[in-house]
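WARN retry 2 of 3 for item q-0093 after timeout on previous attempt; input resubmitted unchanged.
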Amino acid sequence: MNTAGTGTRPRYGVLDVVALLLREWMVMGAVFLAICAIGLGATFLLRKTYTAAASLFVGVGQEYVYQARVGTPQPSIPPSAAEVA
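OK item q-0093 returned
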């Protein structure tokens, strides 16, 4: 039987994966420090002033107008904004 052309993938256990990760701790540390440095640099270089805006709309709509369902229809006048507020 000739097995020279067929290759099998190695099967790693949990301890093998941990050992592989610990072997490359310098690379992982360098990548971590680079990502942290980029994040801190972007954070410290942002603008220090923030603009806030707010608005309040007080309107009078149809929900403030009483419309009788029975009786003679009379035109209803909506209240003014000062009356509602």
